[in-house]
Amino acid sequence: MADIVLGTGRWSAAALADEVANRRAAVQHATEVLVRSASGLDEISVRQPSLLPGWSRSHVLTHLARNADACCNLLLWARTGIEHPMYASRDDRDQAIEEGASRSHQLLMEDLVASSDRFAVAARDLPDSDWTAEVSLSGGDVIPALHVLRLRLLEVWVHLVDLDHDVDFTDIPLEDAEMVLEDVVQFFGGRPDVPALTLEVDFGDHRRGWDLRGTTSRPAAVSGEPGPMLGWLLGRTGPGELRGDAPELPEWL
Question: What b/e string do you get for 193-217 counting C-beta neighbours within 10 Å, with b at 16 or more?
């Protein structure tokens, strides 16, 4: 059987199936941690501020539920070939989050679990051949359906930390942290407002480096552990636990 071309690489059918299985398992684990953490909130604490300005924890939980449904739309697009955007519009997305955030803790949890289950089923049932189908994100970027699993993994871990409850970036498994870091760096790499950076991250059994070609002529060198690096790049924490002269970064989103 011929190799499958995906992005800039070639995959055998077996390798692609293994990658799908591994990414689905990673999303499932992150979701279990999310549900467990969110279950520890109550009617008072769920109304408290999250790490995101203007959003309570209930806003974050609602966003995660609607994002699961948005990712389901992308997988439906990949399966049918019929365009199903993540959200009807940005206004519809924001309105759904605002309305959903007013619900009780119990209803928030039921929505989060149900939407996460819908995504898990959609990912489980997508035929192997459809993971290479191209779909478009809300911003217009085109990705293979396989990367929807990475997108969901990033959303779950980052916004789980945003709940500011009992999980932080150092709790993310190293393999997941490396994947999330790679996606965050790639997002920054194409922006004109990001300074040039050379990043080095220690994952214990190996080190990983990334270069961001930004607007400055001389790149700043910053190194450290995965958790503090993620927190800094995402604007959730300062650079205090990192080494090097960390420049000020624009907002990630």
Answer: ebbebebebeeeeeeeebebebeee
Tell me which H or E stretch contains 155.
helix 146-162
Is the pLDDT confidence value at 97 over 50? Answer: yes
| pLDDT, average across residues 221-238 | 96
Helix, strand, or coil (residue 187): helix
Q: Return the structure tokens found at 24.
A: 């689905």
d(CA 120, CA 250): 33
pLDDT in tens, 144-197: 999 999 999 999 999 999 999 999 999 999 999 999 999 999 888 778 888 889
Q: Domains in the chain, please, with CATH?
A: 13-163 (1.20.120.450), 174-244 (3.30.1050.10)
Residue 88 has pLDDT above 60, yes or no: yes
Structure tokens at 107: 């209803």
The span from the CA of 38 to the CA of 161, in Å, is 11
For residue 239 the two structure tokens come to 């650079």
Residue 129 DSSP one-character state: G
Residue whose token pair is 């970064």 = 249
Phi, psi (rounded to 5 degrees) for 142: -100, 130
How many other CB atoms are found less than 10 A from the CB of residue 119? 25
Instruction: Tokens for 110, please give them.
Output: 């039921």
Q: Residue 10: which pLDDT band, with cuts at 50, 70 and 90?
A: low
